[in-house]
Write a structure and sequence with these properties.
By secondary structure, the chain is an alpha/beta fold. It has three helices and seven strands.
């Protein structure tokens, strides 16, 4: 049996105004660096964390959204976005960051990391995880 555990990080909060989004991203990168099998889910206001075109100059905090583009380099390529959360906020997958990874099993082809799933599909994915952390 492998020592690698399946970790799911569920992101529910808007990216700014609290520390949850930033801390989640830091923990994901640390976990992935230590070869955990890491996946992420974005639900509720968490979908705003991976929204394109974030500008934080008016609120005086650092925009950390470009850091999400590093996820593929850490083999974090299972990023689930709940369809209903997008729809409730008038968003589509086209409004989200273009997160990619290189698939070594497919001659390093660049592939999309984001998968839009229904709440029912996400519940099934969560059932398969060994550890679920909610931020």
């Amino acid at each position: 049996m492998s020592d690698i555990k399946k970790f799911m990080y569920v992101n529910r909060k808007a990216p700014y105004g609290t520390i949850y989004a930033w801390e989640s991203l830091e923990v994901v990168l640390i976990g992935a660096a230590f070869e955990q099998e890491v996946s992420m889910a974005f639900v509720d206001d968490g979908v705003y964390q991976i929204l394109k075109g974030q500008d934080t100059t008016e609120i005086g905090v650092k925009n950390f959204s470009p850091t999400y583009s590093a996820l593929g380099d850490y083999d974090v390529n299972k990023i689930y976005v709940e369809k209903e959360s997008l729809e409730e906020r008038g968003l589509t997958v086209d409004d989200l960051l273009d997160l990619k990874y290189e698939d070594e099993d497919d001659d390093w082809a660049e592939k999309d990391s984001i998968k839009v799933v229904t709440s029912k599909e996400l519940a099934e994915i969560l059932e398969q995880q060994e550890v679920v952390l909610s931020f």
